[in-house]
Specification:
heterotrimer; A: about 200 residues; mainly alpha; Four Helix Bundle (Hemerythrin (Met), subunit A); about 75% helix; globular; C: about 650 residues; two-stranded antiparallel sheet; 25 helices; about 70% helix
């Protein structure tokens, strides 16, 4: 039973991934990515990491994909066909990837993995305790660093997304830059907050 | 562990996924498409963390915790990248790689 | 003997040089002139005081003059080999102090008049200060290396002063010529110093000159091409001296050096710097005399004799009065070298050494006087050439009288200074080598002839139509003339043989009447011939010149030595050696380097495309590289 489910998931992942990187329609490409991410979430479910799967679904499928769709809609016509690379370039890239894949697979298959049979269920509480633990092997410091990183990313995203307008205003009618900076970001906060 | 599925099968899947991402990264001409390829690569490595944790060291949680961190970092990265792309679009009206080569010389 | 105040003698001119040189534009010309004169006056007083103290009070111990040295180690190589800086006081250095300070002071006074109104007046005095400092340092040097340092310093000050009128092309060329020729000779000097220091392990004059010292006794320990290495070194050192003292064939710079201001010619190219070569040989005289039975010394004698004759013949034919004097100087320097060359060491044997130094001393006085007189004449008629002069005795009585005295002195007419010193030289040559004696006597006659040709040509003869009537020079110029004229008369009576001798003990010198009579006879013959030829306007001189024909033309063109040098340098060295080397350098060496550069540019242009600026290209390279590395590490690096 698990075998079948796994192969189905694997098939979905691989096919969607290939479709995602070859599709000439931008929006479709994003949707294929969504399928890949959902398939990966399914893998996490199978591995009994329910919390991880939930994160995968909410953050990736819910947040990042929506964000990418937003940007696609902002900068593209929906029906626009994407340019694709030259044939020779695609072939060389594919060859390189295949050689790399060959290296990977031979390495994987020649390595004796000492798999431990188990059926440990990891609960959300375990992960939460681990993340907030300050004893040996605890992750409290990286956890805090990540929160600072997210904050910085949020502020940075806002500033960068607004930056162009400020620069253009400057060249046009030299407004008071201080006022601009303070007044403008408010409008976009909600938009940009979505992924985070 | 997933009953009936060996670790090598899952690692094969992630390798394929990884190289599909690399292929996309090398061939796509659009910044958003490249971003999508990067997401694929990141996801392949996240699965590896999780699977190796599950199959080889089921008693600890390091792999899972790392996965969470990677997802957080990926989210931050994506939001920044998108804001850069939008800004770029405002400035030059395009998000094609070929229009962003002014740093060449 | 307290030597500390002697240090002031060179340091005062140095201070003058620094002050006048640094505040060049800020000092008024009048002030700088007075500063120069007063500084040199102090130097002169100190020099005379030193001479008095040395010769009459403290110098003589047990009947022999002692050598006093005060020095400090400057650079240490080994226990014995070190370069010192210091002052050395012995008869010849004290004598040189007097010569330099006297002539220097006279020239400073004279220059105040001669250079009046010149743009670089202060600069001129600064250079004179530098020269005086270097010359003092040269004569006071305690070792070969120190003398070399000051040797080069006088070379550079000579260069600066010859090229003083740096807007004149000829002056610049002459300055370069003087510098290059003497520099070329100094190269020999340097090699000589290195050989001597290598074989004896010291630079020090006292150690080298000690007759019982290892440097002299062990001369045979090393040989090179049939001669002792020390002899080679001495010959090389003599080449350096010959360069400075304008000995044949390194004399070519001296006539051209007359492009400098006349006071400079009087100071540097008549009285002081050019005798540095003679002084150098005298300084190392014990070595020259004792090493290999005086082989090097014989070379000195023959080179001196030949130069003396050679220059005297050329001097007869020249029409530029300063050039006549320049060749006369060269001839007299040859005389000094010749006297040194035939000299012995002990007691009366060393009469040549004594005579050489004596002649150096008297020659400095009357030759400086001659140059200053010539300068005075040039100042009046604004020309260097005999054809523009004539009959000047009415206009310039003081110059006339003093010039006559100097001419008589150099011609060796008793009782003037030149007679005494020249007589001693003739005695020395007569006792040693009759061939050289013959040359010396002949040159004495020639000297009288060309000197009086000059004198009559300037002050008698047909009067040229002067546009502005010439007038006597100002007092600042005639005063040194008068003082030097008095000295030219008087210094001959100094009993030189008691003060300056090779063995420093001194001896009683007597006039050798037959020899003196012969010399005076030759001198008078020369004088009378000049009288006949040039006193009144007549064509006798031209007829004689025509009679000599080719010989006269050769002499007028200085025996084509300059042309020979030009041929050797320009035609042979430049064209046959340098030009091909330059061609090779440009074509192949430079070509290779430029080719490498150009190829780099070409290759860069071609591979510039690799740096496309596209992240994906870079990522592609990165991927490919990573894959290759993985393959290498997994499959090839298997051990």
């Amino acid at each position: 039973m698990e075998k079948i489910v796994f192969y189905v998931l694997a098939l979905i992942i691989v096919v969607s991934a290939i479709a995602s990187v070859t599709s000439r329609k931008m929006l479709r490409s994003v949707i294929y990515l969504l399928f890949v991410l959902i398939g990966i979430a399914g893998l996490y479910f199978m591995a009994d990491y329910n919390f991880l799967a939930a994160i995968q679904l909410t953050v990736y499928a819910g947040g990042i994909i929506v964000l990418i769709i937003f940007s696609v809609l902002l900068v593209h016509h929906i029906e626009m066909e994407l340019e694709i690379a030259k044939r020779s370039r695609r072939i060389i890239a594919a060859l390189t990837c295949l050689i790399g894949l060959g290296v990977f697979l031979t390495t994987i298959y020649s390595h004796p993995f000492q798999a431990v049979p188990n059926s440990v269920t990891t609960t959300t509480a375990d992960i939460g305790l681990k993340l907030l633990s300050y004893e040996d092997g605890g992750f409290i410091l990286p956890f805090e660093v990540i929160s600072v990183l997210l904050l910085a990313a949020m502020i940075g995203a806002i500033v960068i997304a607004k930056g162009g307008k400020i620069a253009r205003d400057k060249s046009e009618n030299i407004p008071d830059p201080k006022k601009e900076k303070i007044r403008e970001p408010k409008a976009d906060v909600l938009e940009n907050e979505v992924p985070i | 562990m997933i009953p009936g599925i060996s670790i090598t099968e899952i690692l094969t899947l992630t390798s394929i996924l990884f190289f599909i991402g690399v292929y996309g990264f090398l061939t796509r001409k659009n910044l958003i498409s490249i971003l999508i390829s990067i997401e694929l690569i990141l996801n392949a490595s996240v699965i590896n963390f999780v699977v190796i944790n599950k199959y080889l060291y089921p008693d600890v949680l390091q792999g899972v915790v790392y996965s969470i961190f990677i997802i957080a970092v990926a989210a931050a990265e994506t939001s920044l990248a998108i804001s850069i792309i939008i800004n770029l679009y405002r400035q030059i009206g395009s998000v094609e790689v070929k229009d962003t080569e002014t740093m060449k010389y | 003997m307290n030597l500390s105040y002697i240090l002031l003698i060179p340091l005062i001119p140095l201070a003058l040089f620094l002050v006048l040189g640094i505040f060049n534009k800020k000092i008024k010309p009048a002030v700088s002139g007075y500063m120069g004169v007063s500084g040199l006056a102090i130097s002169t007083i100190l020099s005379f005081y030193t001479a008095y103290e040395y010769f009459f009070v403290q110098g003589k111990i047990n009947g022999a003059y002692q050598t006093f040295v005060e020095k400090m180690v400057w650079m240490n190589f080994t226990d014995t080999l070190h370069i010192d800086l210091g002052i050395l006081i012995d008869p010849i250095s004290v004598m040189m102090l007097i010569v330099i300070s006297t002539v220097s002071l006279m020239v400073h006074i004279y220059s105040r008049g001669y250079m009046k109104g010149d743009e670089g007046y202060t600069k001129f005095f600064a250079f004179l200060g530098l020269f005086a400092f270097s010359m003092y340092g040269l004569v006071l040097a305690t070792n070969l290396f120190q003398i070399y340092i000051f040797w080069e310093l006088v070379g550079i000050s000579s260069y600066l002063l010859i090229g003083y009128y740096y807007t004149k092309t000829k002056a610049v060329a002459a300055a370069k010529k003087a510098f290059i020729v003497t520099r070329f000779a100094d190269f020999g000097f340097l090699i000589g110093i290195l050989i001597i220091s290598f074989h004896t392990g010291t630079f020090d004059f006292e150690t080298l000159n000690n007759p019982e010292g290892s440097a002299i006794l062990n001369w045979a320990s090393s040989s090179f091409m049939g001669l002792s290495a020390i002899t080679w070194a001495l010959i090389l050192i003599f080449i350096g001296g010959a360069g400075k003292s304008a000995m044949f064939p390194l004399h070519i710079w001296l006539p051209d050096a007359m492009e400098g201001p006349t006071p400079v010619s009087a100071l540097i190219h008549a009285a002081t710097m050019v005798v540095a070569g003679v002084y150098l040989v005298a300084r190392l005289f014990p070595m020259y005399y004792l090493v290999e039975e005086g082989f090097a010394l014989r070379i000195v004698a023959y080179v001196g004799a030949f130069s003396s004759l050679f220059a005297a013949i050329i001097a007869i034919t020249q029409t530029d009065i300063k050039r006549v004097l320049a060749f006369s100087t060269m001839s007299q320097l040859g005389y000094m070298m010749m006297a040194l060359g035939v000299s012995g060491f002990d007691g009366h044997e060393g009469v040549g050494y004594m005579a050489s130094m004596f002649h150096l001393f008297t020659h400095a006085m009357f030759k400086a006087l001659l140059f200053m007189g010539a300068g005075s004449v040039i100042h009046a008629v604004h020309s260097n050439y005999l054809k523009d002069m004539g009959g000047l005795r009415k206009y310039m009585p003081i110059t006339n009288i003093t010039f006559l005295i100097a001419a008589l002195a150099i011609a060796g007419i008793p009782p003037l200074a030149g007679f005494w010193s020249k007589d001693e030289i003739l005695v020395a040559t007569f006792e040693n080598n009759l061939f050289i004696y013959g040359i010396a006597v002949f040159v004495a006659g020639l000297t009288a002839f060309y000197m009086f040709r000059l004198y009559f040509g300037i002050f008698w003869g047909k009067e040229t139509n002067y546009i502005n009537a010439p007038h006597e020079s100002p007092f600042s110029m005639t005063l040194p003339l008068i003082i030097l004229a008095v000295l030219s008369v008087g210094v001959g009576f100094i009993p030189f043989s008691e003060f300056v001798t090779a063995d420093k003990i001194g001896f009683e010198a007597h006039l050798n009447y037959p020899l003196a009579a012969i010399a005076v006879g030759f001198g008078l013959i020369g004088l009378l011939l000049a009288w006949v030829f040039y006193k009144k306007e007549n064509d006798l001189a031209n007829r004689f010149a025509n009679a000599f024909g080719v010989l006269y033309l050769w002499a007028r063109d200085k025996f084509y030595v300059d042309e020979l040098y030009l041929f050797i340098t320009r035609k042979l060295i430049f064209k046959r050696i340098s030009a091909p080397i330059a061609f090779f350098d440009k074509k192949y060496v430079d070509g290779t380097m430029e080719g490498i550069g150009n190829k780099t540019v070409v290759i860069s242009q071609k591979i510039k495309a690799l740096q496309s600026g596209k992240v994906q290209d870079y990522a592609f390279g990165f991927m490919g590289g990573a894959v290759v590395l993985a393959l290498v590490f997994i499959y090839l690096w298997t051990n």
